Amino acid sequence: MEWLIWLGALVSLIGLAGLVWCIVKVWKARKAGLDDDTLREEIRKVVPLNTGALFLSVLGLMLVVVGILLG
How far apart are CA 34 and CA 42, in angstroms? Predict the structure, then answer.
């Protein structure tokens, strides 16, 4: 089950990279000095990606735990 642990770690890292990308994207939008409506629209675009990245991270951690328990 070692492969399951490594697969889970890889999926978690991909999810973590997605979360960092979302943070950077919103941070840049805030630093750009956009008005409230435009900033809200930019954040609204990032929310589904943020949720998907969080889901990938959780899924990867679940794979790691299952791999440890079965290994």
Answer: 10
Task: Give the other-Cβ count within 10 Å of 45's Cβ.
Answer: 12
49 φ, ψ (degrees, to nearest 5): -65, -40
**CA pair distance 25, 6, nearest whole angstrom:** 29
CA distance 16 to 35: 29
29 contacts 39 by C-beta, under 8 angstroms: yes
- What average pLDDT values come out for the chain (71 residues) when binned by 10 residues? 95 97 95 91 95 97 96 88
Q: What is the pLDDT of residue 33?
A: 87
Token pair of 34 as six digits: 């956009």
pTM beyond 0.85: yes
